[in-house]
Amino acid sequence: MSFINYSSREINCKIVYYGPGLCGKTTNLQYIYNRTNPDAKGKMISLATETERTLFFDFLPLSLGEIRGFKTRFHLYTVPGQVFYDASRKLILKGVDGVIFVADSQIDRMEANIESLENLRYNLQEQGYELDNLPYVVQYNKRDLPNVASVDELRELLNITMAPDFEAISTTGQGVFDTLKAVAKAVLTDLKRGS
Amino acid sequence: MVDPQMVMYEEEFNHIQVVCDKLVRDANALVVFIVDKNGQLIATSGEYEHLDTTSLASLTAGNIAATGGMAKLLKENEFATQFHEGEHQNIHIQIVGQRVILVVIFDERSSLGLVRLRVRKATAELDRIFESLLRKVQDPGTPSPFAEITDDDIDNLFND
Questions:
Q1: ipTM rounded to 2 decimals
Q2: What's residue B4's pLDDT?
Q3: Domain-by-domain residue ranges, chain A?
């Protein structure tokens, strides 16, 4: 749930990057962190294992500028992708305003993508949300790797609701900001509607 | 069930700030801050200039969420209080009204007993303020400040 603070004239929103293990959620955040003006960002926090796998979450606070005298701040979170961290994933979804599903485009990760997407729907429902009612975008990551599925195939399997979707290579940053902007816009539009 | 939208108005913010400032003094604390359960910082008081309060807020909420998960597994409603003891500084964390988190950072100039005592009093006051805030937010007559924003306003944010 976004937080509107009339006192400090700020609006805070929470965006969660979801997806299977090693799909590039943390890499998305790292790219955003590295390419953002120091004034517009806070410290990036990664609660990770010794082998740099996300254990609980990554967190990056980002300022986008002002709307009608209100500073807009987005808190970006990633979930741990590995299947057995499901309890932690549920917690991160609490209070979410917008979701980015990061899919791994490699054909041999398709089952993991589908499982993670089903897990996202299920975990959102447990928190009282419906994915189809939330600001939501899909990112097809790792487009530079061999053995990737075509975007049409990915759409058919992972985006039947035709949410806005983007091809990306998060290691080089391609598509990273487009994805973020799309979800941020959707969150603000949602807020405008007052839903 | 999804929580209602969190909104903070000037009037309630001032009340909350007074409670935080008083708690810093009464508990001999270094810093007092209030975070909502989603990790959004609501108010801060004390010597916080050198602290990354945004990160602390997010980690506090994560901590409370994880502890809440453990409580559920034990069929407890929640663990309302937590205490972390460091070599020089300590953190006392208290859930207020199941909605927000009151955090007190203190050192050897205070004690856990004193902090607990003062936190109890502050919790009761904060509970009342947040209850009244919640009623105000749920009042359908309260207009949203974002009803007026246009698509252009949103687009302009992303023009750079």
A1: 0.84
A2: 63
A3: 3-193
Query: Residue type for B96, please?
Result: V
Distance from CA of A107 to the nearest CA of B (A): 33
Q: For residue A146, give how far its alpha carbon lies from the nearest alpha carbon of chain B (Å).
A: 33
Residue-wise pLDDT for B78-90, tens only, equals 999 999 999 999 9
Q: Does B39 touch chain A (CB under 8 A)?
A: yes
CB pairs under 8 A between A and B: 127
For A175-190, the pLDDT digits (tens) are 999 999 999 999 999 8
Question: Cβ contacts of residue B26 below 8 Å, gap of 6+?
Answer: B118, B121
The reply to whether residue B157 touches residue A12, judged by beta carbons under 8 angstroms, is no
Domain ranges of chain B: 10-157
Interface residue of B12, B146, B160 to substitute, partner A, most A CBs within 10 Å: B146
Q: Which CATH architecture group holds A3-193?
A: 3-Layer(aba) Sandwich (3.40)
Q: Which CATH class is domain B10-157?
A: alpha beta
Q: Across A19-153, where does the E strand assignment appear?
A: 45-48, 54-67, 70-78, 98-104, 136-141
Taking CA–CA distances from A11, the nearest residue in chain B reads B7
